[in-house]
Design brief:
The chain is mostly beta strands. The protein has one helix spanning about 105-110; strands spanning about 1-5, 10-15, 20-25, 35-40, 45-50, 60, 70-75, 80-85, 90-100, 115, 120-125. The strands form 2 sheets. Strands 2, 4, 5, 6, 9, 10 and 11 form a 7-stranded mixed sheet that branches. Strands 1-3-8-7 form a 4-stranded antiparallel sheet, with no helix packed on it. It is globular, with a radius of gyration of 13 Å. The protein starts with a strand and ends with a strand.
Amino acid sequence: QVQLVESGGGLVQAGGSLRLSCAASGRTFSTYARGWFRQAPGKEREVVAAIRWSGGTTYYGDSVKGRFTVSRDNAKNTVYLQMNSLKADDTAVYYCAATLVPHRVPTLMTSSGYDYWGQGTQVTVSS
């Protein structure tokens, strides 16, 4: 089992920045990848970014490329999401996820590729 706890959400003006954190505990040594997803009211959950734990290769959803950066701190079992140039459309609940299974990239970019989820943190961008 892996437990995930997100933090860092809040209210920010358009054009501003936020950094989300996701701390993991439990069976973290077996983590293959971690992901960030978001879900806005009335919309489906969408991928924001993913990172392979070994090697640190990163992947991004089209809507955040060039604005968001995912990174990890192995020693702290924590993954970060640096969000810059925020837009009103980025408003959503952001979820951290983890998988112990070595999925291929297309699967890592979907919510079905993850078995463990955090409780979510609200990000609100005012225009």
